[in-house]
UniProtKB/TrEMBL annotation:
Gene3D superfamilies: Tetracycline Repressor, domain 2. InterPro entries: AlkX_C, Homeodomain-like_sf, HTH-type_TetR-like_transc_reg, HTH_TetR. Residues 1-59 form the HTH tetR-type domain. The lineage of its organism: Bacteria, Bacillati, Actinomycetota, Actinomycetes, Pseudonocardiales. The keyword Cytoplasm does not apply. Residues 22-41 bind DNA. Pfam families: TetR_C_35 (PF18556), TetR_N (PF00440). This is TetR/AcrR family transcriptional regulator. It comes from Amycolatopsis acidiphila.
Length: 182
């Protein structure tokens, strides 16, 4: 039911924007009572948060693949950042979150209310990076992963430089911070 509700909510956001999402319509299209949705998500904003976290998970799957594909740390972080920016450019839901419908209800989930996204990304990056390079200190990787996540989110919200440049900046910062060659 949860995945179905998120699929329906995503379809509505893509069709009519977040303002068009109505819990009763989502419940009707999923075939459950509206109260069931409220029990699962708490509120319409809870549904939006779950939708953004699912999107985050999808991005992190690709980021993990990009990191794993490169034996050299700098190349791995560059590829992970570049994957993020390329996938973001092609993702209609992320575009809807960033551009929005003027309601401003989704964008904060990647800015002022992005703590769940940053935590999820940091945790998964620490796990993947420490598995790939087991000699690294987990706490230091956590600092680097959180910084990289915040920089990537900042670029998505307000791109001031070309994606290649930002990817290089992220890779450089992470590699220097971790004291890793390459």
């Amino acid at each position: 039911m949860r995945a179905d509700a998120l699929d329906v909510a995503e379809a509505i956001v893509l069709d009519r924007g977040y303002r068009g999402v109505n819990m009763q319509e989502v419940a009707d299209r999923v075939g459950v009572a509206r109260q069931t949705l409220y029990s699962e998500f708490g509120s319409k904003q809870g549904l939006a948060s779950a939708l953004v976290l699912r999107l985050t998970g999808q991005f992190l799957d690709g980021i993990e693949r990009a990191l794993a594909a490169h034996p050299e740390m700098r190349a791995a972080w560059w590829a992970a950042a570049r994957y993020t920016f390329d996938a973001a450019a092609d993702n209609p839901l992320l575009k809807a979150v960033l551009v929005g419908d003027g309601s401003g209800e989704l964008l904060p989930l990647l800015t002022s209310e992005a703590a769940p996204v940053v935590r999820e990304a940091t945790e998964r990056l620490v796990t993947g990076v420490c598995r790939r390079w087991p000699g690294l200190d987990h706490a230091e990787v956590g600092v680097a992963a959180e910084a990289a996540t915040r920089l990537a989110l900042s670029h998505l919200v307000l791109p001031l430089h070309p994606p290649d440049v930002v990817a290089e900046h992220i890779a450089e910062l992470v590699v220097r911070f971790l004291g890793h060659q390459g």
